[in-house]
TrEMBL record:
The keyword Ligase does not apply. SUPFAM superfamilies: GroES-like, NAD(P)-binding Rossmann-fold domains. Keywords: Metal-binding, Oxidoreductase, Zinc. GO terms for molecular function: metal ion binding; oxidoreductase activity. This is Enoyl reductase (ER) domain-containing protein. Residues 39-394 form the Enoyl reductase (ER) domain. It holds the Pfam family ADH_zinc_N_2.
Amino acid sequence: MPVELEPMAPIAHKTISHSGEKMNKLCRQLSIESPSVTGRDCVFSFDVPVPDVPAHGARIRVMCAGACYHPRRSPSLTSLTSVSSGSSLAADISVESDYPAVSLPHHGVRDAALFPGYEVAGVIESFGTEVPEDRELAVGDRVILYPYDGIPNGYVEYLVVHDLKYLIKLPDNMSLSVGAMLPAGALLAMNTVFSAHEHVQALLKERDENSVCKILVVGTGGLALWALRIASYYFSNMRDKVTTTIATLKDDGLLIAQEFERVNVVQWNEDLYEKQLIERTMDACGGQVDVVIDFGTTSRNLHRSMQCLSKGGVVFVIKEVADRLLPKFSRRAEERQQSIKAVEPGTLEQLQELVQLVASGDIEPPPHTVYPAEEALDVVQKLCHSEIQGRAILRFYPAD
């Protein structure tokens, strides 16, 4: 069950602040780096100046942020490149995970490319001097931030946004902790479902009226759970034409999967031979599948999925996984007349739609728990061992 936030005290700041005005304060920032099997610290907390308000933008007091990271490979060790989130941080082995871990940096080198925090929810603290009076947003509004290119690090108590169009006001009935799950992970899952929906519609038009499209979702991590919930909504008018199977990688995943109606479950027990796992999956799916959704797939899982995929079938993965595995699997996919497609993060319009669907109850968010930001290191360690069900959200307490 979600851990809800207690009501916040009103924020006493002027409606319009001067962009050149300094608060003369420091705020806390966290950096979460590659969790290391050697046990060295991977969470760093330090003080940074509160940023000045941009003339055409706003300053946000961050209250909640998704507790995870998603590194984008970059030669720069200073770029802020978190783009999304998952439910666990794991090595390239078959564990319940949305994202595989990257290679660890040399000991003693800060991997600053792993700044996290693209899933943030907070409160508007002040506006810039050039923001018009007739704007739709107001100081004190609870908002989330669309993950646009150049988005600032969100694991900080205050961040600034240079264009108000990237801020989405949260409905009154949506908690900040739920809102914090939407901008990256849920949005990526939504765009994946949209891509799968287009592919399924095209297949059904080509086939006879009695045909059925089969979808395999690998894992029960945060992204997979979002995808299942979103797919349940968007495929609701095609229930007799589409079947869904969940491949779960651990025992408690079976319990999570059981909450979905009309969904088959197959357990990928890594103690079994690969041939047995493929046969087990084909039995659960009722034959070869047309679509596989596996956000953080490993080489072994991708090979297994392709064995279960029909000719013309598609495997949807995140871009970083595609970049890593396509060189190895592209020829095999071509020989099997299959496709491995990278999914883009999603659009601002999709995020606005997602907010309304979650607020209305049409799409139910996965389970999540809120932890104080001070417990970030413990949270990351739990995520590494898949000890947190659903999503983990870090909370920044209001600054004094």
